[in-house]
Inverse folding.
């Protein structure tokens, strides 16, 4: 029972494109943020698949660093969303169109 | 067995991602994201990355999604209203995303022979192998990452604090 690495890569491409579409469709800041996380996860899957293909540990180390940066990004991003909600009292991106709080 | 596991969890991944796309309430999107991330952890296990599978469950499913759910409940976010997005997104965005997918799928399928195959347990990276590279060859990036985390914690506290 073998699975071609190409199938893993195509699965990652599907997830990435769904993430791009969700980023464009969604009108809620938190949902847009979640679609960014989905895209990061898709890229992580590509890294792991290529690490398996080349038998290289470095690809998995890269995924580890991506996870750390994603965690930091989620903490800061959600803090920004809380700060925006406190002044604007909305989460819809149609009404958040100024950088100024 | 391997094929069945792959298709089961790949299907769960795609279904969860589509559900994230189609749900209008953010809490449903967050729970679908949880499904996607947990299934990805199983796919990492199938690719022999056991440490990353554990880290995926702990960091993504355990920390990030819980943070999302916490913020959604804190802000009492309801279902998003139905408005039209920008026309640029519809005209350029979706054909662009579809084109990216088509190009990637074409390249991966045409290079299928070179990419090789995966079998259950043919290449397992143990935590020992991973930590030897991480803590010996890449020690400096690892330490810099800890500074990044510290800055992120400080930034989150400053941003989310009530202004006096």
């Amino acid at each position: 029972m073998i699975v071609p690495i190409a199938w893993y890569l195509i699965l990652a491409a599907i997830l990435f494109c769904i993430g791009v579409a969700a980023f464009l469709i969604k009108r809620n800041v938190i949902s847009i943020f979640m679609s960014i996380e989905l895209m990061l996860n898709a890229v992580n899957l590509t890294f792991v698949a290529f690490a398996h293909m080349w038998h290289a540990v470095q690809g998995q180390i890269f995924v580890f660093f991506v996870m750390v940066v994603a965690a930091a990004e989620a903490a800061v991003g959600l803090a920004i969303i809380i700060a925006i909600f406190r002044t604007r009292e909305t989460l819809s991106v149609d009404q958040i169109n100024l950088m100024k709080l | 067995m391997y094929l069945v596991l792959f298709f089961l969890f790949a299907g769960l991944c795609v279904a969860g991602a589509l559900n994230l796309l189609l749900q209008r309430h953010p809490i449903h999107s967050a729970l679908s994201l949880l499904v996607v991330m947990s299934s990805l952890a199983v796919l990492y296990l199938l690719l022999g990355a056991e440490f990353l599978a554990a880290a995926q469950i702990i960091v993504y499913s355990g920390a990030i999604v819980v943070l999302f759910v916490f913020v959604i409940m804190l802000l009492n976010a309801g279902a998003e209203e139905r408005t039209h997005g920008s026309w640029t997104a519809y005209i350029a965005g979706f054909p662009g995303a579809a084109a990216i997918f088509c190009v990637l799928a074409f390249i991966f399928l045409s290079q299928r022979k070179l990419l090789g195959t995966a079998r259950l347990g043919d290449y397992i990276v143990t935590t020992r192998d991973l930590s030897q590279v991480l803590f010996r060859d890449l020690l400096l990036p690892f330490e810099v990452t800890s500074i990044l985390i510290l800055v992120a914690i400080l930034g989150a506290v400053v941003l989310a604090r009530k202004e006096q």
Chain A touches chain B through 70 residues (CB under 8 Å).
